[in-house]
Design goal:
Elements: E1 2-4, E2 7-9, H1 14-27, E3 33-37, E4 40-47, E5 49-54, E6 57-61, H2 63-79, E7 83-85, E8 89-94, E9 97-102, E10 105-109, H3 111-122, E11 137-142, E12 145-150, E13 155-159, H4 161-171, E14 187-190, E15 193-196, H5 197-213, E16 219-222, E17 227-232, E18 237-241, E19 244-248, H6 250-266, E20 270-274, E21 277-284, E22 287-292, E23 295-300, E24 316-319, E25 322-327, E26 330-335, E27 341-344, H7 346-353
Antiparallel strand pairs: 1-2, 3-4, 4-5, 5-6, 7-8, 8-9, 9-10, 11-12, 12-13, 14-15, 16-17, 17-18, 18-19, 20-21, 21-22, 22-23, 24-25, 25-26, 26-27
Helix pairs in contact: 1-2, 3-4, 5-6
Length: 354
C-alpha cells in the first residue's frame, strides 16, 4: 500500500502518482487525471498544490511534500518492479506475491499460480502436471490470450501476449511468502484510548495548553488508518477517535499529560517536522522505530549499520528485511514485507544515526 498523509491507496497507483509528482516538482503543474485501479478511483490535479483524492479523502501537497513522496514512490516502483502495461494492467513483485491490478479489481498470484496459468495458455494438460489454481480463480485460454475470472467479486481481466510474457519473466523472481508476524509500533493508552505515537505529541501539547490557559483549539489529525479530533467539551477538553470519546477536566488533563510525556521519555521518542511531514523516532534496546505519514519501519539493533554505510545515489543496502537507499537529499528505508517506506533528511536523519 501507499500512504500519502491521510490517504492509503494500492501500490498499483504508483506509476500514475510518480508521473504526476515528477511533473509537479518540475513545473508546478500536473495534468488532471481520473485513474481507476483495483476497483477504486483516484483523482489528481494541481491548483497551487498537488491535490490527490481517494475514497472520500483529499490531500494537498506542496513542493516539499511532493518531493518527499516522489522519493518514497520511486523506491517502491524500482524495488517491487511496478509496471503499467497495455489495457491499464499493472504488475508488481512483492514479498507476498505478484500483484496483478486492473481498473475493475486486483488479483494476487504466487509462483505456482503463474506456472499453472502459463501451462494452460500453452495448451499443457494442467491436471497431468499436478497444476491447480485457487478455488476462486477460473482461467480459460484462447488464441494466445488468457481470461481470468475472480469468482469472489465476478470481475474479470483479459491478458494478452505481452502480459503473459511479463508474467513469465516475473515468476522466477517471486519469493515464498514469509510467515513472519508483522510487528506493530508502540501505542500509548490514555484513559482507555490507544494512541499511535504519531498522535501522542499533539495530544500531550493540547492537554498542557488546556491546563495552562483553559482554552481548546479544535483540530483534526488524520492518518490512513485512523484520525483524531481534539475539541472542547462540557468537561473541558475531549478527544475522539473513530467511535471512542474521552474527556478531561483540568486536573485529569494535567495527570494524563504527565503520563504521556513519561511514556514518550521511556521510548526515547522525539518528533521532527518538515512541512506536513512529521517523523517520530524511538530508541529502544531492541532497535529503532521510524514513524512517518502513516508508515512504520522498524530497524533491529543488529541492522543499524545500514544507516551509516557509504551510499551513493542508486546504491542500496539490505538488513533485516529493510532496504536503505540514497536518493537526492533523502535516506530512504523500505520494509520489504509491509511496503512501508520513510524518507529521512536533516535533523531526523542525524538523530536516527546517533
Amino acid at each position: 500500500m501507499l500512504n500519502l498523509l491521510s490517504i492509503r491507496c494500492s501500490l498499483a497507483f504508483a506509476p500514475y502518482l510518480y508521473s504526476s509528482l515528477s511533473q509537479f516538482i518540475e513545473d508546478g503543474k500536473s495534468t488532471p487525471e481520473v485513474i481507476r485501479q483495483g476497483g477504486s478511483g483516484l483523482t489528481i490535479r494541481a491548483d497551487g498544490a498537488l491535490i490527490i483524492r481517494h475514497q472520500d479523502r483529499e490531500v494537498k501537497l506542496g513542493a516539499l511534500e511532493a518531493r518527499h513522496f516522489w522519493a518514497t514512490v520511486r523506491l517502491r516502483l524500482e524495488q517491487f518492479e511496478v509496471r503499467r502495461s497495455s489495457a491499464e494492467i499493472v504488475m508488481a513483485n512483492t514479498a507476498i506475491g505478484l500483484l496483478l491490478s486492473f481498473p475493475q479489481s486486483e488479483i494476487w498470484l504466487d509462483a505456482p499460480d503463474i506456472e499453472c496459468l502459463l501451462r494452460m495458455q500453452s495448451g499443457a494438460d494442467a491436471a497431468n502436471t499436478r497444476c491447480s489454481l485457487p478455488d476462486w480463480l477460473i482461467a480459460s485460454a484462447s488464441e494466445g490470450q488468457l481470461l481470468l475470472s475472480d469468482q469472489r467479486n465476478a470481475r474479470w481481466v483479459l491478458l494478452g501476449p505481452d502480459h503473459l510474457q511479463e508474467l513469465d519473466s516475473r515468476r522466477t523472481k517471486l519469493e515464498s511468502p514469509s510467515e513472519t508476524v508483522r510487528r506493530r509500533a508502540p501505542r500509548i493508552q490514555v484513559k482507555g484510548l490507544e494512541l499511535p505515537l504519531a498522535f501522542c505529541f499533539k495530544v500531550a501539547s493540547c492537554l498542557e495548553q488546556f491546563v495552562e490557559s483553559r482554552q481548546v483549539e479544535r483540530s483534526e489529525t488524520a492518518l490512513p488508518e485512523s484520525s483524531i479530533v481534539i475539541r472542547s467539551s462540557t468537561e473541558g477538553i475531549e478527544f475522539v477517535m473513530s467511535d471512542r470519546r474521552v474527556a478531561f477536566n483540568a486536573r485529569e488533563a494535567a495527570k494524563w499529560a504527565a503520563v504521556l510525556r513519561g511514556e514518550l521519555a521511556k521510548l526515547n521518542a522525539v518528533i521532527f517536522r518538515r512541512g506536513q511531514i512529521e517523523t517520530v523516532l524511538t530508541a529502544e534496546e531492541s532497535g529503532r522505530w521510524v514513524i512517518q505519514a502513516g508508515d512504520e519501519v522498524f530497524l533491529p539493533a543488529d541492522a543499524l549499520s545500514v544507516l551509516s554505510a557509504p551510499r551513493r545515489e542508486g546504491e542500496r543496502a539490505v538488513a533485516a528485511g529493510t532496504v536503505a537507499a540514497g536518493l537526492g537529499e533523502f535516506l530512504l528505508l523500505l520494509n520489504l514485507k509491509t511496503s512501508a517506506c520513510v524518507a529521512l533528511t536533516g535533523e531526523a536523519l542525524s538523530s536516527l544515526r546517533g
